[in-house]
Amino acid sequence: MKNKGTFMPWARLRRFYGLFKKRNIILPMFREVFAGTYKMPVLTLLLFIASFFYILSPVDIIPDWIVVLGWIDDLILFSYASKFLEKELVRYQQTKDYISGKPVVLNTKWK
After folding, report:
1. Residue 95 region, left (φ>0) first, then alpha (ψ -120 to 50), else beta?
2. 86-106: buried (b, 16+ CB within 10 Å) or exposed (e) per residue?
3. DSSP one-letter string for 78-96
4. Which helix (H) or strand (E) holds 55?
5. CA distance 55 to 47
6. Would you say residue 25 lies in a domain?
7. Domain housing 62
8. pLDDT, tens digit, for every residue of 26-64?
9. Is the pTM of this model over 0.70?
């Protein structure tokens, strides 16, 4: 159960900042995906591609020329896609560490 004192937009901002810190891993990961050396689930890859083109596309559910409301649908989609991207980046980094012979640290809690 999540902490009730955590304000959700702050959690999203922390996730965006976490992705920003991992920006040097994102491009190599997608290069390896498209080169065929790293396997990413097809649905996850399609989600990233579709969300990327939707955010850049001028055709939206709520048009971007409606200043605040037009950006909300893009932000919601980016927030949803960033959650999956962060999980995939962790998996990619663990795979790279395993291949290079570094010890892999699992991000799970012991029960």
Report:
1. alpha
2. eebbeebeeebeeeeeeeeee
3. HHHHHHHHHHHHHHHHHHH
4. helix 42-56
5. 12
6. yes
7. 8-100
8. 888 989 998 999 998 898 889 888 888 888 877 777 777
9. no
